[in-house]
Amino acid sequence: MMLWRQFAMEWRLYRRDRVAMFWTFAFPVVLLLGFGTIFRDGGGPKLSVVRVQAPAPGPQDAALDQALADVQLKVQALPKAEAEARWARGETAAQLEADGAGYRLRLNSYLMAQAGATAGLVNQAWLMAQARLNGAPEPGRIPVSVESPGHKHSANYAAFLLPGLLGLNLVSMGLFSVGMVNVSYREKGKFRRLAVTPLPKWVFLLGQVLHRLTVTVIQAGILLLVGRLVFGIQNQGSFLDLLLIMTLGTGCFMAFGFALSGFADTSEGYAAISNLVFFPLMLLSGVYFTLDSAPAWLQHAVAVAPLAPFLRALRAVFNDGGTLAGHGAGLAIVAAWGLAAFALAVRRFRWA
Amino acid sequence: MEGWTIEVDMTDLALRVKGLRKQYAKVLAVDGLDLEVPRGEVFGLLGPNGAGKTTTLEIIEGLTTADAGEIEILGLTWAQQGQEIRARIGVQLQSTSLFNKITPRESLDLYGSYYPKRRSTEELLDLVQLQEKADAYHITLSGGQQQRLALALALVNDPELVFLDEPTTGLDPQARRSLWDVVRRMKAEGRTVMLTTHYMDEAEALCDRLAIMDHGQVIATGTPASLISDLAIPSVVELTFEGAAPEPAAFAARLDQVVERRADLWEIPTPDPKALLPRLLEAAEAAAVPFQQVHIRRATLEDVFLHRTGRSLRE
Questions:
Q1: Does residue B192 lie in a domain region?
Q2: N- to C-terminal Cα distance for chain B?
Q3: In contact, B164 and B183? CB cutoff 8 Å
Q4: Could you write out the DSSP letters of every residue in A322-350?
Q5: ipTM tops the 0.95 cut
Q6: Residue B212 is part of which domain span?
Q7: Are A189 and B96 a contacting pair at CB < 8 A?
Q8: A37/B21 Cα distance (integer angstroms)
Q9: Which of A13, A198, A351 sits opposite B114 (nearest CB)?
Q10: Torsion angles phi and psi, residue A133, rounded to 5
Q11: Tell me, what CATH number does B248's domain have?
């Protein structure tokens, strides 16, 4: 009864803060609509090469162009000056141009994932073109396809984005919203006024946690609905699994927020501390770049950080229709972090 | 110690504090403090900022733990009966921070719901004259209105013992008066009130008994009247000047009296103003002291503090 009243009051006050509430719910949707639309690409991601046009194309050029089309590379033919300008802007992954009697392929060091794959296809096409020109038997080729791990949603960037946004919301809710609110309550003395009443502290804290949890669930619901209506993305796994992962993640990252709030005396201090945790968590999550070339110790550290296994499990369920069975170890890591953070939070928590 | 003249029935104490000590990193905030407050009394802690009043109150309210000392509140101790103490005391903190968008009515309902026993929200709104603002967001209330709401919140559980930490700081004179009325009403209702203040007029007007605090210690206890009459020099003659008061050393020697210089006046404490005055005027005339006016006033709590510590309350 006390808990319900506390929870209801949290919601009532939350609803009055229209601006904060609006952006809490609208921001992820805006991100999804924005990025999902910008990167919407009907045919799915394709490997492409910029081909610098020869002033007077010979039979060799024609044969190479034909072979490039046969290996299903997307070819953008541009005049020399235009191709160079595009290269300088950093938009080209791979650029193919005549060099003496043969050709030269330039790869963009920033975009090695696409460039590397493209290089393989260009070389294969060149072998084919030479065989055709010389009337030799054409070498066999291994077909290449670009697919998503679960063979679902392969052409839809929004589908890749959506679970990432769900995860990001949880992290920012926990680290920024929960932690910051706690520090500011303490700073302004709101906790002290509560501490002189007989209200059990756990009722107040649990009321807060339940409020945030319902906010996250509603937020996720809105995102899923928009994803479905606008981009036709559907949850491929079970909603129960999704809810379980989300609840676990919310708990884990909220505990992070509570724990960190015990280390800061002021809101300004908290902003610094939370960023100190947030950025390594994001950068080392393996979401933004692959850490294959990082030192071994760093890879081990990343393997036990909470964000990556959480997002992996979320994507596996949502995008690929997997079950939680294969993610026991990862989810155990998330749960362990949550418990450790909770223990730390209880130790460090101060009302005044 | 002076002032311990009132016989206190030990069985009917609202509050008993013995040997309280609290050391912060660099300051000894409370240094061996003893207090006894009988039920039904309005008791004041008077002292300058930094004297340890708020820390003392926070320890008694259970917000801060003491390094040493015993506290008994309504016959209960924090270690044994914390929840019962919380249910039976009312607290107004030095600043009460509530949510920006909660209304007084909602605050009173919410905080009331935390207690087993509660007064009706309507009654409390009437008491602190907030009916008109009952449904306005907290952030739209004036400082005085917020302070009155904080007072109502301290009364929400019909407490036997009420703690008010600097209840009138920052209020205009009219708001202070109406707050004093509420405190007097509390006393009439039989509650025990313990308040801190650094206004001596407030202490004189409201408190049955006072403890004057300095550097974490009680330096005097008693009724306001007894504290003043216990002073050896219960009157003060003041000479006011236009502009800054001149250096009084030569004049003091000539008069053979202590003369203290304030911003624009000299203060000459005396047990017998009638005898001093003719001598004073004569000496002033002879030394051509350019004073404007002469006042004779009774000593105040300010003088008590000055006498005990050698410093002014406002320093």
A1: yes
A2: 25
A3: yes
A4: --GGGGHHHHHHHHHHHHHHHHHHHHH--
A5: no
A6: 10-228
A7: yes
A8: 66
A9: A198
A10: -65, -40
A11: 3.30.70
Q: Say yes or no: B218 and B128 in one domain.
A: yes
Q: Would you call B111 and A188 a contact, using CB atoms and an 8 Å cutoff?
A: no
Per DSSP, helices labelled H in A47-98 are 59-70, 80-88
User: Are B99 and A13 a contacting pair at CB < 8 A?
Assistant: yes
Q: Are B101 and B137 in contact (CB under 8 A)?
A: yes
Structure tokens at A207: 């009321």
**Residue B304 domain flag:** no
H runs (alpha helix) in chain A? 2-16, 18-38, 59-70, 80-88, 112-134, 157-172, 179-188, 190-195, 201-231, 239-261, 267-283, 296-303, 307-318, 328-348
Q: Name the amino acid, one letter, at A31.
A: L
Q: Is residue B4 part of a domain?
A: no
Kindly state whether residues B72 and B181 are assigned to the same domain: yes
Of A9, A189, A197, the CB nearest to B97: A189
B213 and B245 inside one domain: no
Q: List the CATH number of the domain containing B67.
A: 3.40.50.300
Q: Which of B174, B194, B228 is the last residue of a domain?
A: B228
Q: Give the three-class secondary structure for A65.
A: helix
Pair B156, B252 in one domain: no
Residues 6+ apart with CB under 8 A from A347: A262
Backbone angles phi, psi at B46, to 5 degrees: -110, 135
State the best of A11, A196, A351 to mutate against chain B, taking most chain B CBs within 10 Å.
Answer: A196
pLDDT of residue B103: 95
Query: Are B35 and B121 contained in the same domain?
Result: yes
Contact in structure between B199 and B207 (CB atoms under 8 Å): no
- Check the CA dihedral A186-A188-A189-A194 and report its sign: negative
Considering the domain architecture, whether residues B176 and B198 belong to the same structural domain is answered as yes
| Confidence tier at B21 by pLDDT (50, 70, 90) | very high
Q: For residue A148, what pLDDT band results from cuts at 50, 70 and 90?
A: low
Spell out which residues of chain B touch residue A2, defining contact as CB-CB under 8 Å.
113-114
Residue B288 sits at the vertex; the CA angle it makes with B286 and B290, to the nearest 5 degrees, is 145
- Gap between the Cα atoms of A332 and A101, Å rounded: 59
Cβ pair B143, B171 in contact under 8 A: yes
Partners of B220 in beta bridges:
B212
In three-state secondary structure terms, A156 is: coil
How far away is chain B from the Cα of A251, in angstroms, using its nearest Cα? 25
Closest residue on chain B to A195 (Cα): B63
Cβ burial, residue A166 (10 Å; 0-12/13-18/19+): buried
Structure tokens at A177: 């919203």
As a whole number, the mean pLDDT across chain B is: 88
Same structural domain for residues B105 and B38? yes
Q: Give residue A45's pLDDT.
A: 54
* Helical (H) or strand (E) element with B45: strand B42-46
Encode pLDDT of B195-223 as tens digits: 998 888 899 889 999 999 999 999 899 99
My answer on whether B136 and B60 are in the same domain is yes
Q: Which residue blocks in chain B are alpha helix, DSSP H?
A: 53-60, 78-88, 104-112, 121-127, 143-154, 173-188, 200-206, 224-229, 249-255, 273-286, 301-309
Q: Is residue B308 part of a domain?
A: no
Nearest to A193 among B89, B96, B116 (CB): B96
Of the residues B206, B228, B250, which one is the last residue of a structural domain? B228
> Which backbone phi and psi does A36 adopt, to 5 degrees?
-60, -40
Q: What's the number of domains chain B is made of?
A: 2
pLDDT over 50 (residue B96)? yes
What's phi and psi for A236, nearest 5 deg? -85, -20
Task: Label residue B171 left, alpha or beta by phi (over 0 means left) and psi (-120 to 50 means alpha).
Answer: beta
